[in-house]
């Protein structure tokens, strides 16, 4: 019977000491059930680095608290091996928080293998913007619902000491990825949190886009401006209601344009009987196989809003997402590829925010 340990209501040091003691006393193949008041991925990666023993773990739920997970002790790590963290069982916001914490705690030369259900390229831009030119990023496998990336910290981080959640130097991000990357990550930061952008000049078109999407629920401050470099800090705030309030839960997602007349529904994809990793794989495969002007209706047992952010980060302007039904146990969303107009293409070229 698996041993259970309780890590709730403990200090960081107490959690680490108890967890490390139990893991060190376990045999290969032993499984330990852990209950904690927060994710413990950074501690599990740190244990592997310090003790040279591999671990596998899985959370019972991607977001529910307290956090419940099973940790299985594996074989010793080889001299050239890095610990592995599989984040597919975490909701997107928790993934970023855990991975930023893990990378921040790495010493120069340390690294880990990230396993994700889609290309984690936005994380690369985020780490590089936060820490500087100290990231080694190598894909070991790509696609099929299992992307593996070996991430190594090659030197000391370039830190500023500012109180921000994340930073993006958009000058280093390909133009077509800038908007999706920024909105994808901004949607995850907590109220009161600040995102910093570094751009060649103040990104006023992006500021207009923020107003359209988020109303008055953000503060925009230029903290540095010089030729070729502008730093903007965007803080998520509580809306005053000046721009109106959302009528439905779906409004929490900044929907892709919903010109349904340009999308012909060709299929229905019901993923309710599949495990989460397989759901994502099938949905992304179905989208990849769509012809322009076609779409499918996704049927899920809960709001698939996190998928919207993944699509927004990776798909182009043809991406469409429209809620059709929102009932307990049955959510229906039209996902499609619309025809993009000449005007839209022109806007992409002339209304670039940076």
From TrEMBL:
Q: Where is this region: Disordered?
A: 237-263
Q: What's the superkingdom here?
A: Archaea
Name the Pfam families on file. DUF2249
Q: What is the designated name of this protein? A: DUF2249 domain-containing protein
What organism is this sequence from? Haloarcula hispanica
**Signal peptide range in chain numbering:** none
Lineage here is: Archaea, Methanobacteriati, Methanobacteriota, Stenosarchaea group, Halobacteria
Composition bias of kind Acidic residues appears in 244-254
Which parts of the sequence belong to the DUF2249 domain?
A: 84-153, 168-236, 268-337
